[in-house]
Design a protein that fits this description.
7-stranded parallel beta sheet; 3 domains; Rossmann fold; ACT-like_dom_sf; single chain; EC 1.1.1.399; ACT_dom; 16 strands; Alpha-Beta Plaits; EC 1.1.1.95; NAD
């Protein structure tokens, strides 16, 4: 029986994905965490914890170094809320181009008897523009950015994309009409609207800064539904004060953005739809089951991809440091136990490596002894032994 601990409100559809071999919130020594936004940075991860799956994209709430040192694989659910974010961006493009928020605020303040005559007289101040023919710069063309770019094309917009890290697989999802810019400056220099959809890392921190804003045309409208810190908010406010940025829409509030009529802050709702919550929870549950039952890894944050058909009776999975001679030390232990290896695979990601070894003729008395012997190898972090039913 595998033990799963959940944090936050997880969609029931995701919890119902687990098979009868999984127990929910019945142990203080869980095999897996299924989480959303809980902050784990001040938690001590139990040694039993083999996997953390976040039902969502960002993993800034997970202490990745601690997890790796604990031998805990970390996964997110990329793409599970991509459509939700896309739809919100498209909605905000319409809101922005038609001045809907200012118009609604005006109507809420003018409800007197002559409202019809007054609004007829004043409505020209809310004249907007149509999106057709306008230019949208999409910074980051992954799960969300590609959907936004394609949807904007369908609205008749000119779309320019910029993503220096775009993978070949991701490129297939982008309509050929999306123009590809070689630099960030090239992407934004003619934009009426700029939207950013990149992960947060050292390369993207303050990606949209004073230099980037200076390259944009005056009157540009800016959207950050990616992560706090991707946009340099201090520089953005300076550009707003100079009437260079007409309006800034973001899902990530902080005090300096408050009470500014040219800034609209939404309360981190980009991926908050019922459908996205179900998608994320279901994907996370399936990821947990795959990892616990087979050891196979796809798109983990802190482990390399390794997908090996599990056709043998037994499987060793070993997380270890990416240093020389590890595989030979591991196989030497198995050879000393007179075991024949049927399948072996190894891969590395940065300073961490992962090895899968399948064997057929392992006897019960050898289980604990071999796990102990392998764990004693310097630089080995975690050893698991999986058995086929």
């Amino acid at each position: 029986m595998y033990q799963i601990k959940t944090y936050n409100a997880i969609a029931p559809a995701g919890l119902n994905t687990f098979s009868a071999e999984y127990a929910l919130n019945q142990s203080d020594q869980p095999d897996a965490y299924l989480i959303r936004s809980v902050n784990l940075h001040h938690e001590t991860l139990p040694t039993s914890l083999k996997v953390i799956a976040r039902a969502g994209a960002g993993v800034n709430n997970i202490p990745l170094d601690q997890a790796t040192a604990n031998g805990t694989a970390v996964f997110n659910t990329p793409g599970s809320n991509a459509n939700a974010v896309k739809e919100l961006i498209i909605g905000l493009l319409i809101v922005a181009s038609r001045h809907l928020m200012a118009a609604a605020s005006y109507s809420a303040k003018h409800t007197e008897a002559d409202v019809s005559q007054r609004t007829e007289h004043d409505k020209t101040q809310f004249n907007g523009s149509e999106l057709t023919g306008k230019t949208l710069a999409v910074i980051g063309l992954g799960h969300v950015g590609s959907l936004v770019a394609n949807a904007a094309l369908n609205l008749g917009m000119n779309v320019i994309g910029y993503d220096p890290y775009l993978s070949a697989d991701a490129a297939w999802n982008i309509a050929k009409q999306v123009q590809r810019a070689a630099t960030l400056t090239d992407a934004v220099k003619h934009a009426d609207f700029v939207t950013v959809h990149v992960p947060k890392n050292p390369d993207t921190l303050n990606l949209l800064n004073a230099e980037a804003f200076a390259a944009m045309p005056a009157g540009v409208q800016l959207f950050n539904y990616s992560r706090l810190g991707i946009v340099d908010n201090t520089a953005a406010l300076a550009a707003i004060a100079a009437h260079h940025i007409a309006h800034y829409y973001t899902d990530f509030g902080e005090p300096q953005l408050a009470d500014n009529p040219d800034v609209t802050v939404t309360p981190h709702i980009g991926g908050s739809t019922l459908e996205a919550e179900v998608n994320g929870a279901t994907q996370a549950a399936r990821t947990i089951m795959t990892y616990l039952e087979t050891g196979n890894v796809h798109a983990a944050i802190n482990l390399p991809d390794l997908n090996v058909p599990f056709n043998a009776a037994y499987r060793f999975t070993i997380i270890h440091q990416n240093v020389p001679n590890m595989v030979s030390q591991i196989t030497a232990k198995l050879a000393a136990a007179n075991l024949n290896i049927t399948t072996m695979a190894n891969a590395a990601k940065h300073q961490t490596a992962y090895t899968i070894i399948d064997v057929d003729d392992l006897q019960q008395p050898q289980h604990a002894q071999l796990i102990d012997e392998l764990t004693k190898i310097p630089a080995v972090i975690r050893v698991r032994l999986l058995q086929q039913d």
